[in-house]
Batch of 3 targets.
Target 1
Amino acid sequence: MAIAIRSISLALKRFSLVQPPNPIRKNKAFFCKMSNESTPLTHSITLPSQHSQPVHIVASPGVSHSDFWSAIESSLFKQWLRNLETETGVLADGTMTLRQVLIQGVDMFGKRIGFLKFKADIIDKETGNKIPGIVFARGPAVAVLILLESEGETYAILTEQARVPVGKIILELPAGMLDDDKGDFVGTAVREVEEETGIKLSLEDMIDLTAFLDSSTGRRVIPSPGGCDEELSIFLYRGRVDKEIITQLQGKQTGLIEHGELIKVHVVPYKKLWRTTADSKVLMAIALLEMATKEGLLPPFAT
């Protein structure tokens, strides 16, 4: 049901419900390094930490010429290489070396790479053994914990979606991947909330819960470091609304149909939230919120 903005303007500043958006995202053109089709699908690079040991990049059978070069030039792959050589990186102390990367799969989202699958041969110099190196790269993402207070009860906003990788319908926080490498985390968070719930938030109302983490963590959470490079920024929004808004949100159908998003909004009392879903984003957000509250790190909740 459409909700007129004027009907809630008195209930909550800078908070509005809108019809599910139907934008066509404009992705910048991706420029990749090209060569003749007869060129073997191999490439070599040199990392600053191992000048004398070039890294060989090889394509698996079935990976096309264009996908191979798109993978090498992608922000996903370049960021992974940078991570290896950071202060806490795998190659930082010189005890390990990267010998080869096998590009196994590339999934394009329009003109940009959405998912990248590869296998890295990283060798422990002392033993000569490989360490586990299968990588599913999808890049940084955001999630938002929306808490709405109404008539003395605090509610959390979840989305219900079919998640094919686990074969289940999952209740989770509004979330999404960054569209590019510009690092606009808060802007992406606000956009994803509007697309998935119909709620329009303002940038200045967002609180980055992951910013309270120690700087050594990169101030993001890593849900599955054994197989995926995803780093997640978790934001908090707090507001007050009339009970009518809670009722209208419950069961609201949203999502970008053209992107295959079939989403239903769920409103859950915050006190029951930790028992409601196994979504790791929800549980991480609760932990961050409760600890930040305990230590008095959150800004005052405007009345």
Target 2
Amino acid sequence: MVDFDAAHCERDGEEREGGARERREQRRREVTLLRALPYEPHQRWWDRLAPCAVAVVTGANRGIGFEAARLLARHGLHVVLTSRDAAKGQDAAARILTEAPDEAGVSLEWRQLDLADSASVEAFAAWAVETHGGIHVLVNNAGVNFNKGADNSVEFAEQVIQTNYYGTKRMIDAMIPLMKPSPYGARIVNVSSRLGRVNGRRNRIGDVSLRDRLLNDDCLSEQLIDEMITKFLEQVKQGTWSSNQWPQMYTDYSISKLAVNAYTRLMGRRLSDRPEGQKIYINCFCPGWVKTAMTGWEGNISAEEGADTGVWLALLPQEPSTNGKFFAERREISF
């Protein structure tokens, strides 16, 4: 009976997973059709901003960031493409400008930015104020992942956390004072992952108490998120992390994205009471399993497809209900 029950549960799990995959594929096909629809003039709030809407995309020299920068520029925003590596960033910017159709009117420039370096973020913020007077859209894409395939090393856990979580948080803190007031609200979009879901069926945190606190708005705080990160990194140094109920798939990357997701929810709540004309909407999204260098080119969708939901969030006519949420395939998903 035990063997039968185990096999039955496993089969049920496979069927549920197969059904989820099928639904996701169906949604991908629907989104492909939506992507082909142009924005109507009344939807293009960014065209009504003078002298222009400015969007910053971090880690945009390749992959999802590159596509987000390219798509936003083609939609008519002025894009600041940033990258840590100067040569790669300049090449990426030149490629977008060169490949743009003549009628597209693409406006784009490149700046160096390293989210893991406080001085670099501060210098970028000072430049953004001096050059553009501020920004309207921030897409936090920059991130690292050192695991590929079945690997699950935490050798570079500190670097992953410093870039993916603390770097993202550092950039948000620096850019919020620079967000230009407008009737349409400013936008912050954080690239995240389903691997960072608190209650993900295959990669959840084993500590039930921590899960409950992360999902409870009354308990969620910056201190709670930082304490979770500190505890994980301490256990990495001690070599005890694998026996302490952390996610077992891409562990350091998953925890960094769990922190990004939680921080997005927290900031959505903090920013929700800003007065009209000074609204800032912050959301995160999972691009899916994308064919990029970060996945070792093992994904099942293109970088352009992966960037789509982030670009859609950046351009969406915002309202208070779209704040501090998690999205995938242009739909809200649970944390």
Target 3
Amino acid sequence: MTVGSTSHAAPDAGRRARVLALSTAAFTLLFAVWLMLGMLSIKIKPELGLTDGQLYNLTIAAILAGSLGRFHFGIWTDRYGGRRVMTALLLFTVLPTLLVSRATSFEELLACALLYGVAGNSFTVGIAWNAAWYPKERQGLALGVFGAGNVGASVTKLIGPLLIAAVPAAGFFGGLVPGGWRFVPVAYAVLLVLMAAAVWFGTPRADRTPARGRAFSELVAPMKHAKVWEYCLQYAVVFGAYVALSGVLPLYYFTNYGAGLAASLGLNEQLVAEFDTIRGLKGDAHAAYLAAHPAVKTDLDYLSKWIGLLAAVCYIFPASLLRPVGGWLSDRYGARVVTAGVFWAMLASGAVLSLPLGLGVWAFTAALFVLGVGMGIGKASVYKMIPEHFPREVGSVGGLVGMLGALGGVLLPLAWAAVPGSTFPALLALTTVSGLWFAAGTVTDRKPKPVPETVAVS
């Protein structure tokens, strides 16, 4: 039997653990890069004079680049091994990430987003890679641990404001390394190179490639099953919506609750009184105002830190770090039982966030926390069902589910931009449709049978 064939002998724990640890670290970093404009947009928007529509377009461009290739990345991982594909993805992302620090216009940022956005495909790579290394009875927990790398969405929100405040505005070495928000993509570019070296030299050279020697038609055969498309919609709810909210949540907090947060934090009275006016300034006018009112600028930076902390701790952390819990629960009680609980939590919190209840910032944050808990657990339970039904097509099926699910992260921002105030109602509508399909599937197919395994080709 060749290295590339599917063996039922469990690999040793040390090699398996290295794959999980390094793939999770790489995914966390790549996910942070993928969604870095979410937090940086607070600084980029006034400096470059961008509109809300342009910011949405930048978010959509990055999400599309990290979504449309997932199907192929899943197949490539099963054919050539996660070690090769993950290393190549890390290295490809370095240059466009670095160029973000030099962007001076919307067009330049858009070109960078389309290229560094490819980082989002790392999820499919890691899912297929770890599924090939872990036995069925431990796949839920393993895939949940890997998927917790979604916490990368909060990395920029937490460290971005700190780096912006800590690094001199003029940067280092005469501006060769820029300061301010431009330092963040430079730091990420360096980390991407180091992570590529860690993955290449730290994971087993003799990788597992379950799709080696199999025809493409065989790999895509499961697409005729309705279950695949059910999983796609479920993943749009628990992951696509997560990506969309992660990208816009800092700006949402800033726009809807910024003045109230500034007041509750006891910040500059002028900032509180003139918040809407300051928020509307762009380009040179914004820079001139802050230069003339340094106390306002200091408190704006402080407010940005608080917004990043709220978005991370109260939404992104539970929506990411609870994924291993969702995997463990799915291994123990069954993925469909766990997914049912996820839908109830998301429907309840989504209704609270959607109804015109006049929520204050802390009530809003509490409901958002419940929503994040549901998403974090649901991302694991949905993916746990894939190897149960399609044990030898995890790369292709997982890639398609990841691709179409992540497209929810594109469609939702489009809906939000087209219909003001539709942020949470649109998410609630999507959750309701997916929940009804899930319920119908539970009634008609209580005991789904896995797709029969075919004979592996050595």
